[in-house]
Design brief:
Elements (H helix, E strand, L loop, with lengths): L6 E11 L3 H9 L1 H9 L4 E8 L6 E8 L9 E12 L3 E10 L2 E15 L2 E12 L5 H20 L2
Antiparallel strand pairs: 1-7, 2-3, 3-4, 4-5, 5-6, 6-7
Helix pairs in contact: 1-2, 2-3
């Protein structure tokens, strides 16, 4: 049986939002706000979402791909465990993503909220392992850039 290698990547995205660290943190910690920017989006249909925002707590999101691409119709599950939370300063989490019952990636992500003169700079760092040539680094980074843009729209509400 031949196996594909695991592909590893690390990337960082910095984004400044014209608001306080408290408002940015609330967009992560409040289930309703997080669902608006993180779960409800174009290209997918939300099937399930659960959130227990505390160290050791979990988050589970299941969605069906509706966008016209090679995996249209696939059900994706994102399962998260919160590793560290410092209110208004830092969130560290570990998550896996699966298609059906097959895990295709595992990641650790850190969100740092740095107060700056014009608001808050969010420094997002992801360390990821992709199994059997899964979605890969570029698609994952592009996905996070899109999510952080959705966060900007949520913060502008």
């Amino acid at each position: 049986m031949e196996t594909q290698p695991v592909t590893h990547t690390t990337f960082t995205i910095e984004r400044t939002y014209p608001t306080t660290p408290e408002r940015v943190f609330a967009a992560f910690s409040d289930p309703e706000k997080k669902r608006r920017w993180f779960v409800d989006g174009k290209g997918s249909e939300t099937l399930e979402t659960q959130m227990d925002f505390r160290v050791g707590g979990m988050e589970r999101t299941r969605f069906r791909i509706t966008a016209d691409n090679p995996v249209k119709g696939a059900v994706i599950t994102k399962f998260t465990i919160y590793q560290d939370i410092v209110p208004n300063r830092r969130i560290v989490l570990a998550y896996t993503m699966s298609m059906g019952d097959k895990c295709f990636s595992a990641s650790q992500s850190t969100f740092e909220l740095v107060p700056v003169e014009k608001g808050t700079t969010l420094v997002f760092t992801e360390q990821a392992a992709f199994f059997e040539n899964a979605d890969g680094a570029k698609l994952r980074e592009d996905g996070w850039r899109g999510l952080l843009e959705s966060l900007a729209k949520e913060l502008a509400r």
